[in-house]
UniProtKB/TrEMBL annotation:
The lineage of its organism: Eukaryota, Fungi, Fungi incertae sedis, Mucoromycota, Glomeromycotina. This is 8232_t:CDS:1. One of its GO terms (biological process) is SCF-dependent proteasomal ubiquitin-dependent protein catabolic process. InterPro entries: Leu-rich_rpt (IPR001611), Leu-rich_rpt_Cys-con_subtyp (IPR006553), LRR_dom_sf (IPR032675). Pfam families: LRR_6. SUPFAM superfamilies: RNI-like (SSF52047). One of its GO terms (cellular component) is SCF ubiquitin ligase complex.
């Protein structure tokens, strides 16, 4: 039950072909859907540096992960197809990075991301389905 940055370091070192990573921390209704504790920028950076085949990333509700780190993993994941950043504290900077780096992105969940503009979202690949904007 639960893991920390150390677990992400081990994953990054052992699973270079990782394509699916779910770090969702949904605590709505008092229920924690994924027991990830002590996860922050450092753990996510380890994944970004090693796992370049990542296609699915869910970091919903991970408010402790900074926009800078989110942009770093986006730049390092050119094969990303599914990205859920629900309630992450992002701005147009992240959306512009997605537009520049994620040409294969098919799904993007922006629920609770209130600091982004329609102009930024319009820069995304038209084949990207944007949910909850």
């Amino acid at each position: 039950m639960g893991f920390s940055n150390r677990a992400l370091e081990l994953i990054a070192g052992s699973y270079l072909n990782l394509i699916y990573l779910n770090l969702c921390d949904n605590q709505s209704g008092g229920f924690r859907s994924f027991h990830a504790r002590e996860i922050d920028n450092e753990g996510l950076w380890r994944i970004a540096k090693s796992c370049h085949k990542l296609e699915y990333l869910n970091i919903a509700y991970r408010i402790e992960i900074t926009e800078h780190s989110i942009c770093g993993i986006i730049r390092s994941s050119p094969k990303l197809q599914h990205l859920d950043i629900t309630f992450c504290e992002i701005t147009d900077i992240t959306i512009k990075e997605i537009a520049r780096s994620c040409f294969n992105l098919k799904y993007l969940n922006l629920e609770g991301c209130n600091n982004i503009s329609k102009e930024a979202v319009d820069q995304l690949n038209p084949n990207t389905y944007v949910e909850n904007f």
